[in-house]
Automatic annotation (TrEMBL):
<dbReference type="InterPro" id="IPR029048">
    <property type="entry name" value="HSP70_C_sf"/>
</dbReference>
<feature type="region of interest" description="Disordered">
    <location>
        <begin position="701"/>
        <end position="762"/>
    </location>
</feature>
<keyword id="KW-0547">Nucleotide-binding</keyword>
<feature type="region of interest" description="Disordered">
    <location>
        <begin position="428"/>
        <end position="497"/>
    </location>
</feature>
<dbReference type="InterPro" id="IPR043129">
    <property type="entry name" value="ATPase_NBD"/>
</dbReference>
<feature type="compositionally biased region" description="Basic and acidic residues">
    <location>
        <begin position="710"/>
        <end position="721"/>
    </location>
</feature>
<protein>
    <recommendedName>
        <fullName>Heat shock 70 kDa protein 4</fullName>
    </recommendedName>
</protein>
<dbReference type="InterPro" id="IPR029047">
    <property type="entry name" value="HSP70_peptide-bd_sf"/>
</dbReference>
<comment type="similarity">
    <text>Belongs to the heat shock protein 70 family.</text>
</comment>
<dbReference type="InterPro" id="IPR013126">
    <property type="entry name" value="Hsp_70_fam"/>
</dbReference>
<feature type="compositionally biased region" description="Basic and acidic residues">
    <location>
        <begin position="751"/>
        <end position="762"/>
    </location>
</feature>
<keyword id="KW-0067">ATP-binding</keyword>
<feature type="compositionally biased region" description="Basic and acidic residues">
    <location>
        <begin position="436"/>
        <end position="468"/>
    </location>
</feature>
<dbReference type="Pfam" id="PF00012">
    <property type="entry name" value="HSP70"/>
</dbReference>
<dbReference type="InterPro" id="IPR018181">
    <property type="entry name" value="Heat_shock_70_CS"/>
</dbReference>
Length: 762
């Protein structure tokens, strides 16, 4: 199982993986660990990441970046209206009322949701992780949310200050309306971002120069850190409020903070560092990689949640960032009632059970109860219709239990509902055993914030991974009061059963299942189209590379291996192919390029083969000659009756001599013929034939000449004397044969008498 963490940033993204050796941030196909959050749409395919970033200016209308800000926002949102003027691409209102992105893709106008565009980027990051891990990625942790924050304060805002300044300065100095030309504005934005980074490390005046900026006019200006900070006073003033807010929520004082670690690109701005340090009254810690810390943390959280990894005991409790309430129509009060079910910073995942008394189906409306704290204007979450609610047999209200939940992903839902049926029975009638589900529901009714001891003890370690904070509670205004509960009558003996109720969800700003499946299908088609286009481009590039390679080598290392007429003909063919690539062959199907490459290789392969043969042939002939010389020496030594080879059989050595002479004759013959052959024609003998001849010679000769000498045993007389003399130099302490014959008391200890080493047996 793969364990992956993704930092899905506004301008850039990072991917980290957890391995046995720890957590590692991985690089993309450009060997860069930072992947731009950018997607470019073309006439035949999409470019995502670094490839799209290079098209920001050349394909400005169809290159999308900074789209993260439009998640969950209606087109009528004032924030969206304010951002329109800063975009190079068009945004439109979708049928759902949300903000869509309009681009030209595959030669037609297309509208994509923000979720679709984000899915494209995530697919690319998933592909990057899979190429490194060499296995599919199914689950991951993605960073999106903070505890206290300013959603519009970041490095981009500081860039905008510089852009606005130079737009005004160049407008006065060069009479240019920069904001009317989106490409000029994008070029200026890129240069201002570079200038901002330079000012973080340099306090002196720094130049900004752009050649042929607009209307063939070169522009230039200067900026220094001091002036830049004066221009950013209002932005720097927004640094402290989130810090103050997070301390208030945590109920901590500045003195309680042990250390402050800063991450993120904008924290490199010296003035931002100074503001944070001054607020907490201590030096800041920068031990983490400011760009990669978030994605590494995501990978750690993924490892904690994954059953495939065992990590050190380390607990992370997620929280609900905004308070969530439910609203419903109350028949008793003839109006609406509401209740806050999850407070701000409530632990998640978490479940609660609410009790209602109803005679008919009813609707629960979920919403964020502090709209002033939201980054979006609409606080509504969803509506949930609890269906098939009926009164009791005596006409009284039925008891309905509704379970609400915030899951591990932070998503709120009404997960289930059940109706409790109550039936009376006579005094002498044996009470029916209550339904097991009803028993469990009753056990879960405890005070709202009091954890149930039994339930917590029953958690297995695997459940504790993701569900450690899940508890079932009964929501009530007080310990004794139930929601909309009528006055209680005298209790009678009853039997009960529970019936599950269907729930109809009406989700706001969320994609329904049918539409989600359609988006998944479309994304699959686009991925396939991107793959086909990549294969087509690769085939085209292969033709172009072959043309350049062969043209250079025909006048270089291949020159001696092709006749002048063939070289001129082939060179002309290569030039025609190059011209074709930039004219009629600019946009052809993949198979056309494959066939064109095969046609060129049919002409070029014989030349390449002759060159390779001429390189390998001398080495292989040399190796064969060495083997022949070695065997000739052995034959000579055998004939001279040298001790080393006098054990070999004469018939076998005749085989060696015969094979060696044949190999020598073959080699000399081929060498003579090859020396007479021109290099511009195919060789008389090929490298594989020489290799085969060498192997054939070795297979016959090596087993014969490598036979070991037989071992020589000592004469019997010497062996007998050695036995009578007994052990030498005190070696051997067992009694000899004579002692045994005389019946001495010498005893040899048996194996059972030896003391075994002691062992600790677990």
């Amino acid at each position: 199982m793969s364990v992956v963490g993704i930092d899905l940033g506004f301008q850039s993204c990072y991917v980290a993986v957890a391995r046995a050796g720890g957590i590692e941030t991985i690089a993309n196909e450009y060997s860069d660990r930072c992947t731009p959050a950018c997607i470019s749409f073309g006439p035949k395919n999409r470019s995502i990441g670094a490839a799209a970033k290079s098209q920001v200016i050349s394909n400005a209308k169809n290159t999308v970046q900074g789209f993260k800000r439009f998640h969950g926002r209606a087109f009528s949102d004032p924030f969206v209206e304010a951002e329109k003027s800063n975009l190079a691409y068009d945004i439109v209102q979708l049928p759902t009322g949300l903000t869509g992105i309009k681009v030209k893709y595959m030669e037609e106008e297309r509208n994509f949701t923000t979720e679709q565009v984000t899915a494209m980027l995530l697919s690319k990051l998933k592909e990057t992780a899979e190429s490194v891990l060499k296995k599919p990625v199914v689950d991951c942790v993605v960073s999106v949310l903070a505890i206290a924050f300013d959603t519009t304060l970041g490095g981009r805002k500081f860039d905008e200050v510089l852009v606005n300044h130079f737009c005004e300065e160049f407008g006065k100095k060069y009479k240019l309306d920069i904001k009317s030309k989106i490409r000029a504005l994008l070029r200026l934005s890129q240069e201002c971002e570079k200038l901002k980074k330079l000012m973080s490390a340099n306090a002196s005046d720094l130049p900004l120069s752009i050649e042929c900026f607009m209307n063939d006019v070169d522009v230039s200006g200067t900026m220094n850190r001091g002036k830049f900070l004066e221009m950013c006073d209002d932005l720097l003033a927004r640094v402290e409020p989130p810090l103050r807010s997070v301390l208030e929520q945590a109920k901590l004082k500045k003195e309680d903070i042990y250390a402050v670690e800063i991450v993120g690109g904008a924290t490199r701005i010296p003035a931002v560092k100074e503001k944070i340090s001054k607020f907490f009254g201590k030096e800041l810690s920068t031990t983490l990689n400011a760009d990669e810390a978030v994605t590494r943390g995501c990978a750690l959280q993924c490892a904690i949640l994954s059953p495939a990894f065992k990590v050190r005991e380390f607990s992370i409790t997620d929280v609900v960032p905004y308070p969530i309430s439910l609203r419903w129509n109350s028949p008793a009060e003839e109006g609406s009632s509401d209740c806050e079910v999850f407070t701000k910073n409530h632990a998640a995942p978490f479940s609660k059970v609410l009790t209602f008394y109803r005679k008919e189906p009813f609707t629960l409306e979920a919403y964020y109860s502090s709209p002033q704290d939201l980054p979006y204007p609409d606080p509504a979450i969803a509506q949930f219709l609890v269906q098939k609610v009926t009164p009791q047999s005596d006409g009284s209200s039925s008891k309905v239990k509704v379970k609400v939940r915030v899951n591990v992903h932070g998503i709120f839902s009404v997960s289930s509902a059940s109706l409790v049926e109550v039936l009376k029975f006579e005094e002498n009638e044996e009470p029916m055993e209550t339904d097991q589900n009803a028993k469990e529901e009753e056990k879960m009714q405890v005070d709202q914030e009091e954890p149930h001891a039994e339930e917590q003890q029953q958690h297995t370690p695997a459940e504790n991974k993701a569900e450690s904070e899940e508890m079932e509670t009964s929501q009530a205004g007080s310990k004794d009061k139930k929601m909309d509960q009528p006055p209680q009558a005298k209790k009678a003996k009853v039997k009960t059963s529970t019936v599950d109720l269907p729930i109809e969800n009406q989700l706001l700003w969320q994609i329904d299942r049918e539409m989600l499946n359609l988006y998944i299908e479309n994304e699959g088609k686009m991925i396939m189209q991107d793959k086909l286009e990549k294969e087509r481009n690769d085939a085209k590039n292969a033709v172009e590379e072959y043309v350049y390679e062969m043209r250079d080598k025909l006048s270089g290392e291949y020159e001696k291996f092709v006749s002048e007429a063939d070289r001129n003909s082939f060179t002309l063919k290569l030039e025609d192919t190059e011209n074709w690539l930039y004219e009629d062959g600019e946009d052809q199907p993949k198979q056309v390029y494959v066939d064109k490459l095969a046609e060129l290789k049919n002409l070029g392969h014989p030349i390449k083969m002759r060159f390779q043969e001429s390189e390998e042939r001398p080495k292989l002939f040399e190796e064969l000659g060495k083997q022949i010389q070695q065997y000739m020496k052995v034959i000579s030594s055998f004939k001279n009756k040298e001790d080393q080879y006098d054990h070999l059989d004469a018939a076998d050595m005749m085989k060696v001599e015969k094979s060696t002479n044949e190999a020598m004759e073959w080699m000399n013959n081929k060498l003579n013929l090859q020396n007479k052959q021109s290099l511009t024609v195919d060789p008389v003998v090929k490298a594989r034939e020489i290799e085969a001849k060498t192997k054939e010679l070795m297979s016959v000769c090596s087993p014969i000449i490598s036979k070991p000498k037989p071992k020589v045993e000592p004469p019997k007389e010497e062996q007998k004397n050695a036995e009578q003399n007994g052990p030498v130099d005190g070696q051997g302490d067992s009694p000899g044969p004579q002692a045994a014959e005389q019946g001495t008391d010498t005893a040899v200890p048996s194996d059972s008498d030896k003391k075994l080493p002691e062992m600790d047996i677990d």
